[in-house]
Amino acid sequence: MAISKAKKDTLVSDLTALLESAKLTAYANYQGLTVADLQDLRHAAREQGVKIKVVKNRLVKVAMNQIAVYKDTDTTGLTGQLIYAISDSDEVAPAKVLAEFAKTHDALHLLGGFSDSGHALNEAEITDLSKLPTKDELIAQVVAGLLSPLNDSVSALAGGLSGIISGLENKASN
Fold first, then answer.
1. Beta strands in 70-142 (DSSP E)
2. pLDDT (mean) for 23-46
């Protein structure tokens, strides 16, 4: 069933807005996934703040041409049945969501992506990105690293104080 020109214009407009605010866009071939699988992927992506789009590649190219950053981006990899994962808040989450889903669904194959600076990412680069910790995980690691010396000092002082107090109590009772 053909899509009307008005519907295509609306899709391109929505996609342009999404891509303009995107920190990372990752795409994968999804040929062979069931509708239930796609619903599971959308649910998993939504929990990570990632939007999943199944759109004709030609419409994605049109939307990218309307954004200055993406005008010169190489789009030759946009062929076949592709699903797009887009995040406006995390530079790693789209790749991570698709890669995690691909671990349990052989039909999904991570192919590439686009950075917010318009750089086209190949399969190896997007796969490497998917292995990085998310922004929240990095923040947690930094906070844990910063708090570690403080926690060690408090533990040492608490152990030392209890030893001093019990020593004083023993002296007072003698």
1. 82-87, 109-115, 120-121
2. 94
